[in-house]
Amino acid sequence: MNRIRFAFFLTVSLLSFISQRSFAQTSLTPATPWGSWLIGTLQLPGGEKKWGGFAEVQARSNGVMQQFFYHELKGGVSYDIDRNFTLTLAGGHYATYDYQALADGPLNSEKRFWEQLIINQYLSRVKFEHRYRIEQRWFTYRDGSHPFRNRIRYRLNTFVPLNNRTITDKTAFLSVYDEVFLNPVGPTFERNRFYAGAGYQLDKNWIIQIGWVNQTNYSPATFERGVFTPQAASGKNNIVLGLTYRISRRSGNQEKLPSQPD
């Protein structure tokens, strides 16, 4: 079995394993309509210059390209310790609306700041990205309350270029990731996000990606007045469309994984 077939087999196997887990989570609740996520990203790679950064805008809809109810505006700075290790400090503003009453303003808004470590592994054609993130979150609800929460996230992202050994100009690739969201106060397991998609790097600047993401939120088990209510899950499938523009640097042509900052 040559390396291309091996990489393809490994990716399909990983996709099959995690998607079965994801569908099992979603099946705990009735089927929900498909939604959509639109993501636009501007990146400044670190590379030999070490320092980099990003800015991103995102919009989400309850239906496919309709009933928009949520947006994100975020950005940050990064530092490449070397090819395999990157540190990031970033923040953003998030707002959730009732899509049937957008003029009434957000149901809640959030200011978020996070610290992040990314570890990359380059194994021939298969590339792995391990992302560790700690978030501080300040909320403002319509009723005037202002709670604060912390959250921990871990994402394992796999990339497989299809027509080149590295992800560079004119390269098609597959991307699969699974991310867990943990609440240090409890309940511990808060959310799971699974993504599978394909992308194409046109040149050193432009990257397009399209995929599917399943996001499942968990509510804790409760015991009140002698009645036990087990943990519940609510999942939703979404189409993801992403467009990334990388600002060119004169020096350095090393491979940079087309990771989504979200």
From TrEMBL:
<keyword id="KW-0732">Signal</keyword>
<dbReference type="InterPro" id="IPR019619">
    <property type="entry name" value="DUF2490"/>
</dbReference>
<protein>
    <submittedName>
        <fullName>DUF2490 domain-containing protein</fullName>
    </submittedName>
</protein>
<dbReference type="Pfam" id="PF10677">
    <property type="entry name" value="DUF2490"/>
</dbReference>
<feature type="signal peptide">
    <location>
        <begin position="1"/>
        <end position="24"/>
    </location>
</feature>
